[in-house]
Amino acid sequence: MLVLSRKKDQAIVIGEQITVSIIDIQGDNVRIGISAPLDIRIYRQEIYDEIQEENRKAAENLDKLKKQVQNLKDYKNYQD
Q1: Is 17 in contact with 37 (CB distance < 8 Å)?
Q2: Over the stretch 17-52, which tens digit does the pLDDT of each residue have?
Q3: Sign of CA dihedral 35, 37, 38, 41
Q4: Of 19, 26, 31, 68, which is the most buried if we count CB atoms within 10 A?
Q5: CA angle in degrees (0–180, nearest 5) for 53-2-47
Q6: 70 compared with 45, residue with greater pLDDT
Q7: Bridge partners of 24?
Q8: 8 or 70: whose pLDDT is higher?
């Protein structure tokens, strides 16, 4: 991890497309602005973690559904 110190109104450039600017500092709170192309998704860490957990749950549910469908197909073939 790269750790940098910045002051208000200073910025960090990532690659050629992303700029992270320090907008304001008040006590322990730092407001930042991020300029990036629209196709780059930017999330707060806690939101990103929630999205990943929901994706994991959705994948598990899809696997369960696929198994149920296969069981129904197997049952139908057994009855034929």
Answers
A1: yes
A2: 999 999 999 999 999 999 999 999 999 999 999 999
A3: negative
A4: 19
A5: 20
A6: 45
A7: 31
A8: 8
